[in-house]
Each structure stands twice: as C-alpha cells, then as structure tokens.
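User: Show me an example of a complex going from sequences to structure tokens.

Assistant: Sure. Here are the input components:
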Amino acid sequence: MVKLATRQLVIDIPARADGVPIDLDLCAGQVWGVLGPNGAGKTTLLHTLAGLREPRRGEVLLDGKPLPSLRRRSVARQLAVIFQDRQDSFPSTVLETAMIGRHPFLAPWDIETAEDVELARNALHRLQLDGLDNRQVSTLSGGERQRLAVATALTQTPRIWLADEPTNHLDLRYQVAVMGLMAEQAAAGRAVLVCLHDINLAARWCDHLLLLYPDGGACWGEAGAMLVPEALERLYGQPLTAAQVNGTRVFVPREVG
Amino acid sequence: MQGRCAAGLLVCLLGLVSPAVFSGESGPCVVDDAERRVCLQAPARRIVSLSPGATELLFAAGAGEWIEGTVRYSDYPAAAKRIPRVGTHSRFDIEKLLALSPDLVVAWISGNPAEQVERLQALGMTVYYSEPRRFEDVSSTLERLGLLAGTTDVARTAIAEFNAAIDELEARYRDADPVPIFYQIWDDPLMTVNDSHLISQAIELCGGRNVFGAADRLVPRLDRESVLAAAPEAIVAGGMGEDDTGWLEAWERFPGFTAVRRGNLFFVPPSYIQRPTPRVAEGSRILCEHLETARGRR
Amino acid sequence: MPRLFPPLLLLAGIAVAAMLLAVAVGSVSIPVAGLWAVVQGDGDQLHRTVVLELRVPRVLAAFATGGLLAVAGALMQVLLRNPLADPYVLGLSGGAAVGALSAMLLGLGAVMVPGSAFAGALVSTVLVFGIAHGTGSWTPTRLLLTGVVVAAGWGAVVTFMLVIGPTERIPGMLYWLMGDLAYARSPWPAMFVLALACLLIMPLGRSLNVLARGPLQAATLGVAVRPLEWSVYVAASVLTAAAVTTAGAIGFVGLIVPHMLRLLIGSDQRLILPASALAGGTLLVLADTLARTLIAPEQLPVGVITALLGVPTFLYLLYRSR
C-alpha cells in the first residue's frame, strides 16, 4: 500500500552536486522524519515531494503515477502541506483560514456546507483554538498561527501529510500535541513526513528517518537503524551524547573538551 | 463623418439634377467652416454661441439679440455679458443647453470638445462649425451668420466697414519699411504665433515682419534667449487683462536689446487682436501705429 | 454561506438609490411628477430628452466605469498580494493615456480616441508583464516595480505630448487625463464587459482567496496557480482598458474601493469582487452627479471629485480601523 514514492530522486539545489539519489516509499501508517542541518535541503525536498518544485532528476510517484501527470486538484485532495512561512497580505479570520482547507473539495460555484464548517471547527478544537473563530489572523501569536496552519491541513483531510517544521514557535506542550496528532494520523492509516530540526522529537515520534547531508549525501531507513550517534554527529558536525529515557533514545550536545 | 459627407454630396448632385428636391426648404442654407451644409427652416431666433469670438461675430452680424446662451469670457459687446452661460468653451453643460432649445448652435472647431458637439448634433440640434483664421474669414463668417439669422443687411454693413478699415491700413502701410517684431501672446511659458495666425496677418498688414513667422507650430513655445537671438526691433504683447502691461516690464532687464534700448515695448489689448472678429481691424490699427512709432525711433 | 448576501443586497440597494438620485438631479430641474411621466412613457419632450438621452446613459456609463475600475483594482491587489496595486500604479492607464492623446494629437477624431486608448492599455499590459517576466519567472514585487517604472515612463511621454501638442488641443487632453464622463458615448460596451467579467470571475472567488495566501499554499490546495494568475492579469487589463476607453483616466476608484470594502466586510473575494462592482459604480455615479451639478453650468472632471470624495473617506476608515 505505497502512497508517495520517489524514484532516483535528486532535488534541485543550485550549485550542489547530485549526491545520492533518493528512493523512498512513504506508506500508510508511517511517520517519516527528515533530519539535516540548515541548508541541507529539507524544505526543497518537501516541496519537491509535494510537486511544487521540479526535481533535477528522477520522479515522485503518487500511488504509482508521476506527480506532474496528475491534476493539482486531485493531488490536493490527498496531500496536505504545512509550510514554514505563511503569507497573510490581506486580513482574514481564523475560521476563514481553516476553511480554505476545503477548497480542493468544492466546485467553483459551491459554497461551503455546514459539514465543511463542522470539519474546520473540529480541527480548530483539536488544536485548542476554539473560541478564536472570528479573530483576525494578524492578531494571533506565532504559536497560535502555527497551530492554525496545522488545523488548516487537518481540515483538508489528507491521506498524506508533508509538514515542514510543524513544531516551530510552539512551546513544549503544543510540540507534543502536534507530534501526537501526526502519530495519530499515521495510526489511522495516513502517511506522514515531517522535517524536523530536533533529533529528540524525531526519536520520540518517527518510525522512519531520512538524513540529508549538506553535500547532497543521504541515508534513510527505520528509525532504530538511523539513530546512531556516529551518523548524527557527522550529520550536524556536533559531538553528541546518547542516553535512554523511558525506552526512548535521547541525544544531547557534548562539550568538546 | 464620412457617411455624412457622402450623403451631403449626394444631396448636392440630386439638387443639380432636379431642383425640385429642395422645394420643401424655405429657410437659409450656408456651408460652414467644416464644409458642411447648414440649413434652417426659418431664420435663427434662439442661438447658442460656444465661444466668445462667435458671440462677438453674431453681434456684429446683427444676431446678438437672439443669442440665448453662451460660454464664459463672452464679454463683448457689453450686452453679451448679460446672456445666460452654459459653461466654458472647453466643457459645457449639455442639459442646460438643451433646455434653451436652440435652433442654431455656433460651435468652435478647435476650441470645443468634438464629442460634446457631436452629441448636440445627435440630439437633433443644428450646429454651425466656425473656425475663422484670416481677415477674409471674418467677413465670410459675418456674411453666413447674417444669412442664417436673416440679418444680411446688418451683416453686409459690418463687412463693408471691416473691409474698408483693413483696406485703408493696407493702402497706408503697403510700402512701409519692414519692422521685425516679436509678438508675445503669453508670458509663462513664453509664447508667440507663426504666420498662419491672424495676428501675423495683422503684423504683415502693418508692414511688420514676425520674427517667428516661419516656426512650425501655430503657437510656438520659446525661451527668452531665442527671442534675444532673433533681435526684433519691437516687442508687442497682450497681457492678462485689457490694460495689463506687466509682461513688457520683464523685458526691461535686457537694456542692451534693440527693442528695449529704443523703448519699442508696445501693448495691444489682447481681445482686440487675439479674437477673429471685426474688432481685429481696430487691433490692427493700434498695432500699425506702434510699428510706425518704432520706425520713427530708428 | 448565506452571510454573503445581506451586504450585497445592501450595496445593490444603495447603488440603485444613487442611480435614481443621479437621474433626478441636473441643470434642468424636473419635478418628481415630470420624472414619473417620463418613466411611464410620456411627459414633456425636453424632460424626455434630458432623462432618456442624457442622464440615463451617462449614469449607466458612470456605474459601469466605476465598477470596472474597482473590480480591476481588487483583482490586481490579489494578484500582486499588495494592497497598493491598482491599474494606475501598474501603468495600464498610462498606456491608455498615451494611446488616447496620440489619437487626439494626430487629429484622428473623437471616434478613434477610445480605440487608441484600448490599444495603449493592452500594449502597456504586454510590456509590463513581458518585462517583469524577463528570462525567469515573475514575482509580485518584480511585477509591481516594473509597473511603477513603466507608469512613470508613460507619465513622461504624456507630459511630452502635452508640451508639443497644439495649444488649442490642450484643454481637451487635460480633461481626458483627469477623466470625464462627457466622453462616454454609449454605456453598453462597458456594461457588457462588467457583466461578463462578473460572470467569469465570480466563480474564481474562492481560488483567489487561496491565491491571496501565496502561490505555494494555493498550489497545495489544488489551484493551478500560473493559469489563474494569467487569467486574473488579462481580466484586470481588459477591465481597465474598457473603463479608460469609456471615460478617460479616472484615478483612485481601483485603489480605494476594494480597500474600503475590506475594512468594512472582510476580504473574502467572493464578496469583495461583486461588492467592488457595486460600490465602485455607486461612487462614480455620485461623483459624476456632483461633477456636473456642483458649479453648473460649468463642469468639473469627475476624477477630481472621486479623489476629493474618496481620499478623506478612505483615510477616515483607515484611521478608525486601528
């Protein structure tokens, strides 16, 4: 039951060598974490997987069909993206923003039904944004906006989640809540891929990992196999100490003596 | 426009073949300055004039008492000031004009907006397009307006007076020594006229020579330097009003300049010479006297 | 969402009231009984001509022009995701002005002026879009900057034409530049374009809402971004060209009307686009009524009134909003 797959994929980062072509299968029920230092191409990879950017080589397949051969609308019915940056040039309310998640499901003349509103309200509730329906997005805090972006994706009811640093701006409690939501989605038969900069979140919530190196190198596989201090130290260029807390591996930076 | 001309031509041709076609027409017919035939059922009794010049010409042609509406700056003769206004020559109130239900509208080709005049025609008004550019045009316009208003006698008397005045000036200055002059019609920016303009015709009549007569444009814009370089013997200017000589004072800061050294800075009341009306004869007379004065200062 | 309809009904009501007012007032004072007689198909001949041949076409032309400009402005603002965008800022009206003034300068006659204005607007569109596109892809900032610079260029050409133009043609040219509905020949072409645009663009309202949140977000929500952006740009250009062709260069409507509406009723494009058509039309109908009656029989250019009415209203709303 493969959902999103890459075949010999080389993402297009200007002035970088091709590196290792990526062949990964993002399947229902899996949570993939993408780790890598700044500039390794995590966001570019995510945009390429979503079909928003042309790859340099190779292809991305959605249920076996190359992405460019599919209509954007049918892709949007299956795949949601949470971006790091959002533009709000024009004022809009929290509910209006969540409701745009229903766009792929509505014909041009359609007006959102009570059911759509219900979906949006539930999503807002899930992200603990109830009661803010009519607030202007511009008056929200950074963390509230981040949760609103997650709620918008939830309203889109995707089978595949692609999330770029979904825990940005969030305090610990909401980091856990959002990652918990991702895991819950995977458990419900959806596929999730998240770019993260926090190894410990990845270690706690992801079952598969993709490590992206700044020189284009990459390795991927089950989380247990990837979470070895040597690989991660090489990835970040930072000595690490590993420990075991409640059955989860934890990595902390080590002082270089 | 083309369709209308063709139709007019057709009417003319038919007219030549069988005069009976025109038997229904009892009123006057003339050809206006846009080469259109303008015909009335009866002499015009409710006239609207769309330029100060046309108002003056209508009065001179004897039709002044029938002008029901005119535009801003229609100030001559004194009776013109009491005529109701319908706006300015560049934008008039069509509704107001319609309410006057005129039987003749005298329009100004280069001064009125074409769209508005066309709208008047579309509303069924009879429009006479006027654009006098030479002394001869003043006479012929008087003749035609007199015909349309049924005041041919008054118009012909005015024409005779006008022509006599012009002829007299012509005779007196025919052999006079040429005086190079600069005629200033506006101050900022500095503007003059070329030989296609009525003012230049007046200058020629007086034995003067317009130093910018050969310029390309009817109303060229200049800088002071080019006027100094043209070295006119006299400078003649209008002004912001009928007795405003302020523009001439600006030249006095060039005392080495021939026209200034000899004191040949002359004023002509602008409405006497800038409007193509019978008063241009009087304006020309004033101009001629100034040039004669300049000759005396050589 | 049924809450779309009350504001639109209210705006439509105001628009109808404004048009009735505009038909009722003018230099010729017509009593209500006289107006009613005209409506019923008889009445005084003068009243009939004034109402049916002068006021009604002019009011319709004013409404259509205002609606076109406001919708074009709203579209441009979404396209560039910049509230400062409007057809004037982007050089469309500059191109139209150069086209129209060329026709006037060459003495091509009043019939050719609208056609040249239309051609000028479209040339400017292609120029701005082509240059902004360049060898790579365009971004809103690049498009806006190109538009502003091209507009400045057209401005210089207009000034040059005014300087070299024959003195007797200057007043007509200036009136055209300030915008004036006395130029409107028939309201029907503009009305037709407005109605067609509303029909074609309104279904895109929700897509535009999504587009307003950025091209990437829009693409992930199933919007074909590039085709949509092209359609919006072409539509805004045609709308502007039709407006400028009808009544010359009237400023401020495209910038101010969508903004006022956003401050009052939010920024859902499904509401903003039809509301812009109604409110823009209403603003111009009222402005034109003032222009032809304020110092009658002398006539003011309507562009002066839209600015005098629009600017303080806009500033007040902006001041109050924060």
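The lines above are the inputs; the final block is the predicted structure for all three components together. DSSP finds nine helices and twelve strands in chain A.
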